[in-house]
Each structure stands twice: as structure tokens, then as C-alpha cells.
Amino acid sequence: MEMTNAVNGKHRRSYRIFLWMILFFSVGTICAILLVDIYQTVPDTIYLKAGEESEISFNVPLSGEIIMISGGNRRAREVLQELDGQGNAAGTARSGSMNGELISDAAGSSVADSGGLAGSGWDAGGQTLDDTAESSEADAESVIGRMPVNLSANVTFVANAENSYRAELKLFGIIPFKTVQIEVIDESMVYPAGLPIGIYVKIPGVLVIGTSNFIDEQGNVVMPAEHVLRVGDYILTVNGTPVTGKSDFVSRVAQSNGEVMVMTIERGGEQFDVAVRPVRNQDREYKIGIWIKDSAQGIGTLTYVDADGEFGALGHGVSDSDIGVMLELGEGALYRTDIIGITKGKRGVPGELTGIIRYTDSNRLGTVTENTSAGIHGEVNAKLMDQIDSSPVEIGLKQDVSVGPAQIYCNIDGTAKYYDIEIIGLDYDSQNVNKGITIQVTDRRLIALTGGIVQGMSGSPIIQNGRLVGAVTHVLVNDSTRGYGIFIEEMLK
Fold first, then answer.
1. Dist. CA 237–CA 263, nearest whole Å
2. Residue ranges of the alpha helices (H) in 243-329?
3. d(CA 486, CA 376)
4. CA gyration radius for the chain?
5. Which candidate, 192, 205, 132, places its Cα nearest to that of 470?
6. Which of 493, 489, 301 is nearest to 395 (CA)?
7. Which of 94, 161, 266, 351 is the most exposed place for a label (fewest CB within 10 A)?
8. Which of 143, 141, 145 is CA-nearest to residue 119?
9. Which whole-number Å values give the CA distances from 370 to 331, 380, 460, 493, in the listed order?
10. pTM of the model
């Protein structure tokens, strides 16, 4: 009997230990999920518009300090000197938001002026500002000012200068958790375009999009470029001479007489030389067994143009359709495009806009200067500006966007129109730069015309509350009425 009780007691202890382990594991899992959720709730970068109040509402248990930094930015120093020259009214409480203030509003949230973190308001709020610049290596970064911030309550920022800041945040004010960049932009009004455009991108040198073997003149299967060139390599020079394009490279291989070709290639951001010896095939032509291209073209939508004629389009980079990598830009241009057909999207098959791109100088509309993960950028000419019918609108940053009704602005049938959509999700995770906004088309006119979102609509402006807040980037293959968009601030970087 005693032995039975001992065995039962041992089993109960083991069972209790097992239950405790499950409890600890469950609590740990829940805590980890909560921490990831808090981390993703706060963006890696927060953008503010110069001269305007921006209210940030994250409601997370993070606090810390905002550090004003200057990397040799004379403008930042001049702003501080100007503010300091206006005199300090230490100990004077204020009820409004003015240059250099840190005060508390009625709700107990912090109000910070990020235009210049020096001034009397710091003293009024009981804070001390170190006006002296704390220089790091070679004065690469100077700390000009510091101020506390608490993201568990609403925070209102007022930005009056184009400077850089970072927020060093701690969980519960104790555990170092995340560093957030705060950038001030002075561009607050742009023209939403919504125009279909033809895009031409020239690649530096040639891009390897495939490798293959072939039969040489002796009947052997050969692959000269094997283990030397890879898919995704850019061939920039041959024997020290720049490669100007596909036909140039093919001609050099054909005229090599089987001699070794030393090529400078770029792979993964690094440049180095490789050597390949061409081999003659059964047609007595010299080959090295690779497929190449030197350009890409397609149809997209122009998102915005600012007062200086600078544009943003697509909301994602121009990628090669064969290998799925974003292309490096040698040069590029925008051309007039006429939409001549629409393939409606349906379940499992994305639709598309079919158009004619007019590659002539008279139909050239602008120059592409950047191809980035957030879209293409460059400058438009007067011909394109004449086609924009919209009035300038304010930019809406991430903190201005909310779940609810919105519109997209695009030209499908020859006239740019607003179509109703619903913003059904927001994701601040920086890894999903092109999928920050989840949208659903609700406008029956657009659904009848295209089935929802189709290829070629990438870049269509998303408007909410009269502000440009983003651009369409993707469509869900299984539901053409749903898709994703990018926050406009990502394109404005």
C-alpha cells in the first residue's frame, strides 16, 4: 500500500511538473507574440511633414528619448542658432506648440517640436537640453538635442525644419527594444497622376538570364560558361571595353576566334573579372552558352508628380520577368501609352491592360533616374504635365491612414476617374514595403470594367480623406477585387 502511494505521489509530481512546463511554455509563447506585435506596430521609420502637426497613436508600452542628430547638416545648426538667438524664457509655461517646445497636452501626451529641439519650451516642461553637439567619429554624427517620448499615449510632433532624428525606445521604459528613424520631409503637396505610361529601362551592359549547353563542331555537348557565369550576373566589360548592349556582346563572341574573353561582371553588388573561352558550334559559330538581355519594357501607372516635375510610379521596382530580380538601371524613359484592350481578372488568372507603347522622341514623356523597391523615379517633361487633370493634394503619411473607405485614381478607358475601394488592413512591417496597405475594390464600375485590380494598374494613386496615402502594387490571384498597396511615404524616400 505504501509503495502504491509512493508511486502515485511520484506520478502526481511528474504531472504537476508537466503542467507547469506547459504553463511556462504557453506564457512564453504569448509574450513572444505580443513582443513581435509591438515591434511591428511601430514602423522602422516615421515621416513627418515640415510645418504641420502629426499625431502618432501607437498605444504601446514603449518610452525613451528622441535624439536630434546632424551629420554635417548646416541647416540644422542654423535653425538651432536662430532659435537660440530668440532668447530663452526659462520656466515660462505655454499652452501652444511653438518652436523648440516640449509640453504636455490635456490628455497627458507629449507634444514635441521636431523642427528645432532647442528653446524655452524644454525648460517649461521641466526638461534640460544639452545644446552642445556631441560629436562621434570624424563628426559623422552630432547629437544636438534630446527629449523624452512616451508611446503609450498619443504623441503630437510639429516639424519646422528638414532634419534627422531617431527615437531610442525601451520596453516599459527599461529594456532596450527598438530604434526608430524620424525623418522630416518638406514636400507636402503633389499631383496624383493615374496615367498609364510605357516604361523603358536600359540595363548596364547585359544581364545573364539563363545558361545552356550546345553541341560543338566535334559533336560533343559543351557548356563554356558553366561554373563561371551565373543567372543574374551583369557583364559590364569584355577585355577592358564596356559592353553597350546585347548585339555588341553577341558580336564580340562571334568575332573572338575562340580566344579567351576576360569579362568584368557584377554579382551581388561586387565586381570582379572572369574568363570564358568561346567554342564553335555545328554551324561554325562561336558561342559561350548563355542567354542575355539588355533592356526591359512594360506598362504601369504614374502615381504622382510634384511641383518640380519629379515623379514616382509603379510602387515597386522594375524586375526581369524571366528571373524575377529587380533590374539595375543604366538609363530609362517614360513614353506615351494607349490602352487598347483589357483582360478582366478572374479567380486564378490575373487580368491585364494591353497597350501600345510609342517609342519615339515625340512621345517621350520623361526620364527614369532610379529603379528602387518602392518604385521608379525621375523627371517628367511638359508634354506629360499637360496630360495631368488633377489638382494638387496633400500627402498622407502612415499615421494619417486608417481602415475604411478610400479611392483609387486611374485611367483605364481614356479618362482618369476615381473608383471606390475599402482599406481593410494596414501593416507597418518594413519587410513588406510593397504590401503595407490591403485594399478591396468596391466600385461596381471598375469591377465591371476590369474585374478589380489588373496588371498595368500598379502605381494607381490611393486617396483617402483628400490625401494621397499610397499606390496600388499587387493583386491577389484568387480574388481580383483584392490587392495590396504601398504607403506613399515609402515612395517619397
1. 6
2. 246-254
3. 13
4. 29
5. 192
6. 489
7. 94
8. 145
9. 9, 13, 19, 11
10. 0.74
